[in-house]
């Protein structure tokens, strides 16, 4: 497999400018001859579909929700990074670039990250022009706050609902193009397969979820903006519908899957309350601006009401261990520190799997009204779920799976190794390395959709003759037949276990064996157990109903079948990567004080996995990472 990153030459800070200068163009009248499929309507997908349609392309947009507005980007809370330096606190494009590379533990491609930092300044202007109601200071200027991994206030926000407001901005841009007829929208329509003809992506196979109809669509280019794979862990902050199917099916058609072991554990989630739960709830990282994280110093105090534990018997462990960043240490570091405290027997709440996030000092200093103005909806959400007031007593939080840094491999132009298949947002691997800094997901999604794909996709299409492949082509028919047969097979097993039961077992294996701490033994055990579960799935699955109507159990079974295979790929990637970096923590590879220990000599590269066929071990390919601007150093936030 050839992994040509296609990074432009010249200094890092000039690569994107050089690309745009040398970009091939298409006559405006000729753009209408090209058809583009965009799968997913989150920030990356909606922004891409709207922008490409505005340029004149014919766009077909797909989502499995009943409305593009229900994409999971709506769940993002805390904010979006941008190097605007409104605070005059020393921020710059270079500092955002450096913080992002360092935050990813030096496992991301420099050129992509610098481009992200460059276009971040345009994203805010774009969104303000759309009417996104960012928080403002008393004088009317846009307000910013801090997020983990930075010593600056570069995060723009809309209280605790930034993702929702940004998605509404992208949705209105998409809706305008739908109204103009430039975008044809297909809601309740799930991608089941990628159609590759003569080595080039030519379309997709879908299932209409309300009718069960299997149908193909053809295009000159396909954009996947389908999000991450965090639900392989079952319990995560992701919506229940989030899945890996689109990207994993593309992987099985030849697209390389890069760094699947890089999964992010978010430190600020409401702890698990019992086996009845199907997902977890995120409490925004923005809360760590004013909330202080602590546990009792003495195990004997863990059962007490927090107000009964005096200051001198509290361990503000992030402030103690990482004085430079304190409570705003990056997510991977804060998550492991919370686990360490709980493993030491000092966890609080049911099951002793929680730490305190305390706003007592902030309320005393700023007043309850000020805290409510900044985070009010988050406090309301916490009280509705836990029946406790975060104003009157500290919130209880614990780490949970949140975001995935791995994804389909893409080059600098966001195109996979399959020509014509572009991948945007969380679905690709490109910008965050081994750990994503908070408030950078929204930044990447909108950067890819609004400011990168319109250039790079045009550049590629300019060298391709317009014209879609007829839907009666043998490859379309073959892929449709395979999708239909898979659906029938899922329905025909007539076993005793539901898709949800299998999914829960998959998640238990992944969290216990491939979660915050991984070892050679646990990963080998996970691979073996996933193979056993997969064999049982195809013999003992129970899916009621038929394929000819709305059948949510069938949808779930189809997605779980991919998690059963993908979970093994994730564990295999973690097993081979014998180092610790960012969200990937191998217990055999840590410093004497318990921090992640990289092995730059052996693993300073992207691991891109190639599908080898059913039952065969996938092939691991490598893209070396070179650092021309940033020096490879030990990552430290102390």
Automatic annotation (TrEMBL):
Cofactor: FAD
Keyword set, alphabetical order: Flavoprotein, Oxidoreductase
Pfam families: FAD_binding_2 (PF00890), Succ_DH_flav_C (PF02910)
Annotated ranges, domain Fumarate reductase/succinate dehydrogenase flavoprotein-like C-terminal: 503-637
InterPro entries (UniProt xref): FAD-dep_OxRdtase_2_FAD-bd, FAD/NAD-bd_sf, Fum_R/Succ_DH_flav-like_C_sf, Fum_Rdtase/Succ_DH_flav-like_C, SdhA/FrdA/AprA, Succ_DH/Fum_Rdt_flav_su, Succ_DH/fumarate_Rdtase_cat_sf
Record-annotated FAD-dependent oxidoreductase 2 FAD-binding domain positions: 36-442
KW Oxidoreductase (keyword) present: yes
Keyword Flavoprotein tagged: yes
Name this polypeptide is given: Fumarate reductase/succinate dehydrogenase flavoprotein subunit
UniProt organism field: Gemmata algarum
């Amino acid at each position: 497999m050839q992994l040509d990153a296609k990074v432009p030459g010249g200094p890092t800070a000039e690569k994107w400018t050089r690309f745009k200068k040398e970009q091939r163009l298409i006559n405006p009248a000729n753009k209408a001859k090209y058809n583009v499929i965009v799968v997913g309507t989150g920030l990356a997908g909606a922004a891409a579909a709207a922008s490409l349609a505005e340029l004149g392309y014919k766009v077909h947009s797909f989502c499995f929700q009943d409305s593009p507005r229900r994409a999971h980007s709506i769940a993002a809370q805390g904010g979006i990074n941008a190097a605007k330096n409104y605070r005059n606190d020393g921020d710059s494009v270079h500092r955002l670039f450096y913080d992002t590379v360092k935050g990813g533990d030096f496992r991301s491609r420099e050129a992509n990250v610098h481009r992200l930092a460059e276009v971040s300044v345009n994203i805010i202007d774009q969104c303000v022009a759309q009417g996104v109601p960012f928080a403002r200071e008393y004088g009317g200027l846009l307000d910013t706050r801090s997020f983990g991994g930075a010593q600056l206030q570069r995060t723009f926000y809309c209280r605790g609902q930034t993702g929702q407001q940004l998605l509404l901005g992208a949705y209105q841009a998409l809706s305008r193009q739908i109204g103009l007829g430039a975008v044809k929208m297909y809601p309740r329509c799930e991608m089941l397969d990628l159609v590759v003809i003569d080595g080039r992506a030519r379309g997709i196979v879908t299932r209409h979820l309300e009718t069960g109809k299997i149908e193909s669509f053809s295009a000159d280019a396909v954009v996947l903006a389908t999000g991450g794979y965090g639900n392989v862990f079952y319990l995560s902050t992701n919506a229940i519908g989030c899945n890996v199917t689109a990207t994993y099916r593309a992987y099985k058609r030849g697209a390389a899957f890069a760094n699947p072991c890089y999964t992010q554990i978010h430190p600020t989630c409401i702890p698990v309350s019992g086996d009845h739960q199907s997902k977890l709830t995120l409490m925004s990282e923005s809360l760590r601006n004013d909330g202080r994280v602590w546990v009792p110093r003495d195990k004997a105090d863990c059962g007490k009401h927090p107000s009964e534990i005096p200051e001198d018997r509290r361990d503000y462990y992030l402030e103690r261990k990482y004085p430079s960043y304190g409570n705003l240490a990056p997510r991977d570091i804060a998550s492991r520190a919370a686990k360490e405290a709980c493993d030491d027997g000092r966890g609080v709440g049911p099951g002793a799997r929680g730490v305190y996030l305390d706003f007592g000092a902030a309320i005393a200093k700023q007043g309850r009204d000020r805290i409510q103005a900044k985070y009010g909806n988050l406090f309301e959400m916490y009280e509705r779920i836990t029946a406790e007031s975060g104003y009157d007593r500290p919130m209880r939080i614990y780490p949970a799976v949140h975001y995935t840094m791995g994804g389909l491999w893409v080059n600098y132009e966001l195109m996979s190794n399959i020509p014509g298949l572009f991948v945007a947002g969380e679905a690709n691997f490109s910008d965050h390395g081994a750990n994503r800094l908070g408030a950078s997901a929204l930044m990447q999604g909108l950067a890819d959709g609004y400011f990168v794909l319109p250039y790079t996709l045009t550049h590629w299409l300019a060298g391709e003759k317009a014209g879609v492949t007829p839907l009666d082509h043998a490859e379309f028919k073959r892929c449709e037949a395979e999708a239909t047969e898979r659906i029938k097979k899922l329905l025909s097993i007539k076993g005793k276990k539901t898709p949800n039961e299998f999914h829960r077992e998959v998640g238990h294996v992944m969290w216990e064996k491939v979660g915050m701490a991984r070892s050679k033994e646990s990963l080998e055990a996970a691979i073996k157990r996933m193979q056993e579960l997969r064999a049982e799935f195809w013999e003992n699955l129970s899916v009621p109903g038929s394929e000819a109507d709305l059948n949510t159990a069938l949808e779930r079974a189809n997605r779980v079948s991919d998690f059963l295979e993908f979970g093994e790929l994730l564990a295999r990637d973690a097993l081979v990567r014998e180092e610790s970096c960012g969200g990937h923590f191998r217990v055999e590879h840590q410093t004497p004080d318990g921090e992640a220990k990289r092995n730059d000599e052996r693993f300073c590269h992207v691991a891109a996995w190639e599908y080898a066929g059913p039952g065969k071990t996938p092939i691991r390919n490598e893209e070396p990472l070179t650092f021309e601007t940033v020096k490879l150093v030990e990552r430290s936030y102390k």
